């Protein structure tokens, strides 16, 4: 079940799943909340403005720079505030950003490329997460007694991952093909990260691809064995998890957009410099045991570079999901709202 390039009509159809939930729920932090600043956090942005622009954002049970920036007070004194709209299923985030139901969202690069190819109005505005050997974007687990040790062992097996059309599908298939594996002999099924460890342990899938922070629990499960991380597959080239914004928000509120990106970049740098404190925020937010929470790593200053985007354009074209030349790298991103980029201050 591979995704074709997502059409505008199909993206809009996906919205019904979320809108049927009503008002999209309530926020974790209200717009008037003033959470305390964490120890070691850089100074709060000091600029003032009479107009504060809310940006609509999911309030999902995950680790996210928007929540971190909010908890550190980085939106205080700026022209932007998160307006949390409740939980939004991960596959719905980019469709909702692309149609303007959300102003900002974070999901992997291939989903953004497909959205742009379908005519939706959004841009990557901040680089987001990155893969390090010690902090990968995703990990690959098998049961310890499975006998699966090499890529070829996966032929005839079932692989569970969080969604089609994103990193887990494309990074994995690219790597397996390079290793001579017939990926058509593998059964690919969608299993949410929060269910993947149990689904694997009970034998309903043979390999689980799990993202942090959920992968930490699987790492500590003695019945499971880590096979690889995405760093082992492509040294992190496919691991950039960026933030994308709707075009109307960028055009109508450029100063607020700049403040959002600056707050996120400051939060990203804080996380990189205080990984253990960031893990504590994750544990508290998600109700996880601290020892099971894995660290996150982010691109310095969230400055976007082109190779991770070109990587996915090439994959999508090779997979037949994108017509050659339909989307160029510069169609996908802009650093214009990042004050850490030279020339934009």
From TrEMBL:
SUPFAM superfamilies: Periplasmic binding protein-like II. It comes from Pseudomonas benzopyrenica. This is ABC transporter substrate-binding protein. The lineage of its organism: Bacteria, Pseudomonadati, Pseudomonadota, Gammaproteobacteria, Pseudomonadales. InterPro entries: SsuA/THI5, TAT_signal. Residues 60-278 form the SsuA/THI5-like domain. It holds the Pfam family NMT1. It comes from the Bacteria.
């Amino acid at each position: 079940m591979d995704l074709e390039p997502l059409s505008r009509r199909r993206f809009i159809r996906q919205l019904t799943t979320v809108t049927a939930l009503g008002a999209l729920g309530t926020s974790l932090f209200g717009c008037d909340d003033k959470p305390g600043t964490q120890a070691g956090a850089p100074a709060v942005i000091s600029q003032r403005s009479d107009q504060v622009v809310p940006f609509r954002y999911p309030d999902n049970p995950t680790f996210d720079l928007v929540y971190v920036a909010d908890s550190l007070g980085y939106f205080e004194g700026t022209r932007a505030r998160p307006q949390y709209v409740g939980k939004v299923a991960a596959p719905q985030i980019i469709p909702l950003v692309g149609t303007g139901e959300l102003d900002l969202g974070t999901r992997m690069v291939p989903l953004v490329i497909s959205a742009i190819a379908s005519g939706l109005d959004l841009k990557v505005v901040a680089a987001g997460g990155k893969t390090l050997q010690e902090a990968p974007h995703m990990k690959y687990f098998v049961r310890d007694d499975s006998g699966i040790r090499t890529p070829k062992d996966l032929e005839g097996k079932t692989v569970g991952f969080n969604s089609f059309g994103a990193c887990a599908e494309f990074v994995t298939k690219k790597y397996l093909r390079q290793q001579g594996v017939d990926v058509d002999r593998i059964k690919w099924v969608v299993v949410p990260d929060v269910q993947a460890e149990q689904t694997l342990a009970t034998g309903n899938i043979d390999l689980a691809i799990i993202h942090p922070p959920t992968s930490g629990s699987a790492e500590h499960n003695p019945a499971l064995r880590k096979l690889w991380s995405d760093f082992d597959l492509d040294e992190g080239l496919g691991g950039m998890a960026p933030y994308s914004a709707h075009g109307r928000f960028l055009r109508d509120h450029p100063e607020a957009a700049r403040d959002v990106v600056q707050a996120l970049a400051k939060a990203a740098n804080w996380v990189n410099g205080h990984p253990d404190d960031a893990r504590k925020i994750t544990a508290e937010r998600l109700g996880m045991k601290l020892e099971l929470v894995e660290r996150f790593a982010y691109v310095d200053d969230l400055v976007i570079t082109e190779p991770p985007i070109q990587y996915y354009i090439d994959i999508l074209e090779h997979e037949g999901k994108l017509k050659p030349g339909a989307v160029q790298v510069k169609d996908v991103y802009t650093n214009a709202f990042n004050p850490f980029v030279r020339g934009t201050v």
